[in-house]
Design brief:
flat, 21 helices, 8-stranded mixed sheet
């Protein structure tokens, strides 16, 4: 998970401060030394680290902190505020054209994830902004680049414009004419990348920019490349004048250096972040939420937004009524598991929970095979059996197990989990929290997932 080691190092530094009733300047100096080392280990630019630590130190040795009743909290508050500033302060929105057609040019080194994340961005804007996007294949050099764009575009239901190996400048120009003719109001140009920056690459990108005059030039940066990403960002900005950055692979073992350095080095905001391999795992970049996650305070706003997207409001109200009447069925049980899966991995969810709650969930996993078995078992039941599992006797169990390709043991486990969940919801309505298994997590985690 991105920033995990940085979060742990900062957490240790602040833990030492919390044990002190009053802070001396030497306490703050020692804490800032730990912060500096943590940021350098995260591959943050040395100059950025130096300026950051100086700013925090100057604020932290002020009277407000030294005389505060909770000085450690004040220091953490200052670090949080400065991290937010470092990453841009406010959430930066995409520049939308007032003339009806918005052109976004995606640039970056090869392997950063331009093609996939460009398609993800198109899908996000289609869903959230009701845009009618068109993906344009301007990378004529990388083998299978056009096919890759067509594949992800097809999966997301977004049209792709391509002209084979024609001149990319001509492709971009023709794509805009095509978009105007067919009612597309958003064009995303997937341009070529290289393994390194060279004159030919930059010349081609400059010619595309001059021809189509894009509203937005987004630099796609692989967060896992650390300081190299920042160097690339500087070069692209100098040559093209980028308007923003999209960070990819933030779900990997990213130390965080790119996210904390690129804004300070280029002065250009991070606008979006790719948070996983799935085609819906992209989101606007919120500096305040990211700072909160780095400091181990969670990101409840993003978690709530993910829940809202994954859960059907109408179904939620129906479920609420069923729970009140204790009429929760096996079909409802399965629906909840599927919607939970739609929120992403447990690792993603853990990163958004504050402090100990996140760490407690960090190792948890939704077992996809267990979900597949659950689905097969429930779908092998009759509607009557799903609505009233108490009628499932031994002969019915044998039939259901055979029909789902599972065993009677698997079915018995599911029925037991279902009953435990009913008991849990019933007691929670009475203001109690039941204790399953004597306070210990059962084998395989809560409800076996």
């Amino acid at each position: 998970m991105a920033f995990e080691s940085l979060s742990d190092r900062l957490g240790e530094a602040f833990k030492k401060l919390r044990g002190k009733g009053r802070l001396s300047e030497s306490d703050i100096k020692e804490a800032m030394r730990e912060v500096r080392l943590a940021l350098l280990e995260a591959d943050v630019s040395y100059k950025v680290v130096k300026d950051f630590v100086k700013t925090v130190s100057d604020r932290a040795v002020g009277q407000d902190v030294l005389e505060s009743l909770t000085p450690a909290q004040m220091v953490i508050k200052i670090v949080n505020e400065e991290l937010i500033k470092l990453m841009g302060g406010q959430t930066a929105k995409l520049n939308m054209s007032s003339r009806g057609l918005t052109v976004v040019m995606l640039v970056g080194l090869q392997g950063a994830g331009k093609t996939t994340n460009g398609a993800k961005l198109a899908a996000l804007l289609k869903k959230q902004n009701s845009k009618r996007p068109l993906l344009v294949a301007c990378d004529i050099y990388r083998p299978a680049a056009i096919k890759q764009l067509q594949t992800v575009g097809g999966q997301l239901g977004i049209p792709v414009f391509e002209m084979g190996t024609e001149d990319p400048v001509k492709i971009a120009k023709e794509a805009i004419a095509h978009a105007k003719k067919h009612g597309n109001d958003l064009v995303l140009l997937d341009t070529a990348g290289r393994l390194h920056i060279d004159e030919n690459l930059m010349d081609e990108l400059k010619r595309i920019k001059a021809e189509v005059n894009p509203d937005e030039i987004l630099l796609v940066v692989d967060a896992m490349t650390g300081q190299d990403a920042v160097n690339a960002a500087s070069a692209f900005d100098e040559a093209l004048g980028i308007t923003g950055v999209m960070l990819t692979k933030l779900d990997g073992d990213a130390r965080g250096g790119a996210a904390l350095s690129v804004r300070a080095v280029t002065g250009k905001p991070i606008k979006f972040s790719g948070t996983g391999e799935k085609l819906d795992q992209i989101e606007p970049f919120h500096p305040d939420r990211m700072a909160s996650r780095i400091l181990g305070m969670g990101d409840m706003l993003t978690l709530i937004e993910k829940a809202e997207q994954a859960f059907d409001e109408k179904k939620a109200k129906e479920l609420q009524e069923k729970l009140k009447k204790n009429a929760f069925t096996l079909s409802d049980y399965y629906d909840q598991l599927v919607q939970l899966r739609g929120m992403g991995s447990m690792q993603d969810i853990a990163g958004m929970l504050p402090g100990g709650a996140g760490k407690a969930l960090a190792g948890a996993k939704l077992d996809e095979r267990a979900l597949a078995r659950t689905e097969a078992i429930i779908l092998s039941m009759t509607q009557e059996e799903r609505d009233n599992p108490s009628i499932i006797n031994h002969s019915r169990k044998k039939r259901i197990a055979a029909g789902s390709g599972t065993t009677v043991v698997d079915l018995n486990k599911l029925l037991k989990q279902y009953e435990m969940l009913k008991q849990l919801t019933k007691q929670m309505q009475k203001g109690k929290m039941p204790n399953f298994g004597g306070g210990k997590r059962g084998r395989g985690g809560m409800f076996g997932f």
